[in-house]
Amino acid sequence: MIDLPSFHALAAMIMTVGVFVAFARGKPSIEIVSLFTIALIGVGLYFYPLPDTLPTDGLTLAFAGFGHPALITICALMIMGRGLVVTGALEPAARVLERVWKLNAQLGMLVSLLLAMALSMVVNDTPVLVLLMPIFVALAQRGAMPASKTLIPLNAAVLIGGMATTIGTSTNLLVVGIAQDLGMRQLSVFHYTPIVLTAALVALPYLWLVMPRLLPDNTPERTQTIRRFFSHLRVTPQSELAGRHFDEIAGRLPDDFRFEERPGGAFEPGQRFLISGTHDGLESAIRMLRGQVAPSWVIDQIVGRSRKRREDIQVVEMVVTADSRLVGRTLASSGIADRYGVAVLGVHKPKSLLRGDTNAAAAHDLRLAEGDVLLVMGLSDGLEPFAATDSLLQLEGAREVPRRSKALLAAAIMFGAVALASVGLPWIGAAGLYLVKVPIAISALAGAIVMFVTGCVKFDRVGRALSAKVIVLVAASIAIGRIVLESGAAGWLGEALALGLQYLPPAGVLMAVMLFVTVLTNFASNATAATVGTPIAFALANELGLPEEPLVLAVLFGCNLCYATPIAYQTNMLIMAEGSYRFGDYMKTGVPLVLIMVTTLSFLLVMTYSL
Question: CA separation (Å) from 480 to 18, 528, 539, 557?
Fold first, then answer.
């Protein structure tokens, strides 16, 4: 028999269950539950300290999450991800994947999952997800599957791939390191890879075909009608159109863009054609075709002033009111570019909605009328006087033009941060030249700082990159993990597990150990699960007369089956804000995956080690 749990251990287990129930219900909000949990731990340990500790030590434990390397890593990675987005660095990769998704959405999803698994086998899973997540968010904005339906499956694929090698995650290294300290032989990098790859093949249909259907479409509802803007596209000598026929470029055009006029033969420099499209459609087509919809001199002027003043270029929508001097004029006769140094990229006619009939004839001369909406590009010192002087109503939803001049720099910074954490920093020491792996927290923080210094991310816009919900959730999960470990709750649970497993067959022992570690991983942390589970595996092996290696691998696999809650692993929390996920979304999709993986891996361990 084992002793009853201590007061602190019992309280920690009750609190963990209560927090889980509150998270699963979704009421109160995750932010409130997280902050209340931190406060409860801090106040509780202040008045009832752990043995041999001071009251202030409890406060340190409760609030340590806000300075924990995991939280620093997540925030820094969010900032670097923002840098990739605002500079347009991911657009080439997004366009390549977009072509695959356009061929077939299911094929695109399968290719993406396999790519994620393959990358995370040799590169730490957190950087892999950070690289892929913004691409899938961009794909969703381009009309592919909603991000809320792809990010959780993508994250699961990354975690499964990271489980396949000893270097895939830091948790794998921790389990293997503890096992070696306890006397187990050293495992090679690909020692158990065939087992994981076989289990991955079993789980792949669920990730690919079932999981996206279980997830909601959290795409924000549009609060305004989609507008189609008309403009004139001028073919320049450098344009992709020059010398080509329409049929040659038709297949590459965005779905929400079209030519209202087509040439009789090949496109020739100097020709102008009426075009129309949504804001996104016009932007994508103009960039791809390299044509002009506004005078080149005003575009160059805006770009030059933006670089000189280090100010972002904005694209805004403005409504022409009845009092505007622009009513009845064409863009050519309005003198907008000369007066204000802004460029009108397109004009939306109220009766020419995307889902309605387009009146190309009325839009051909782009003569302005009351109610027209102008798509205007410029800097704030030109846009504001333009709206005020010419009686225009500026609509909400202004966009910043990606700082594409810094795209390569932002990509290099991200690649450097990932390389430092996954490959290492070349170093010369007593043993000669070798690679020193930099902790992901340090490399990510360094990358975020370089993003700020180089202007890839503006410091006053950093709030757009971070999620307050994720920050307090990470801090609370770290506090829960520490109290479960330091109160003795994890150790007591391990003793209780060992007491009951002596009557089970080897397959049952492996499955029970894996499930126990999985529960610890999903509700405390994978580090806690590794620290508690690995010694238990060795003790069980000695008591039950089983080989140590399969039990250690059961612990290692269980530490990686962190799909069922957002607090289980930092990548789970990274995708939470982007996918607008709720706690229940992780449970609904993660619990079946955990059961599939536990059953498959336990069977494969029994077969591999002839238990």
Answer: 12, 11, 26, 22
Distance CA 164, CA 122 (A): 9
Dihedral of the CA atoms 549, 550, 554, 557 (nearest 10)? 80
Cross-strand partners of 432: 429
Cβ-contact 243, 294 below 8 angstroms: no
pLDDT of residue 300: 85
Is residue 42 within 8 Å of residue 35, measured between CB atoms?
no
Residues 359/364/365/368 CA torsion (nearest 10 deg) = 30
pLDDT in tens, 274-318: 888 888 788 878 877 888 888 888 888 888 888 787 777 888 888
- pLDDT of 170 strictly over 70: no
pLDDT in tens, 367-400: 788 888 898 998 888 888 888 888 888 886 667 6
d(CA 591, CA 243): 57
State how far the Cα of 85 lies from the Cα of 87, in Å rounded to an integer.
6
Q: What is the dihedral of CA 211, 215, 219, 225, to 10 degrees?
A: 100
Q: What would the DSSP string read from start to end of 196-257?
A: HHHHHHHHHHIIIIIHHHHS---PPPPSSPPEEEEEEEEPPTTSTTTT--HHHHGGGS-TTE
Q: Residues 190, 140: contact at Cβ < 8 Å?
A: no
pLDDT band at 200 (very low <50, low <70, confident <90, very high): very high
Q: At a CB cut-off of 8 Å and minimum separation 6, what does 247 contact?
A: none
pLDDT beyond 80 at 500: no
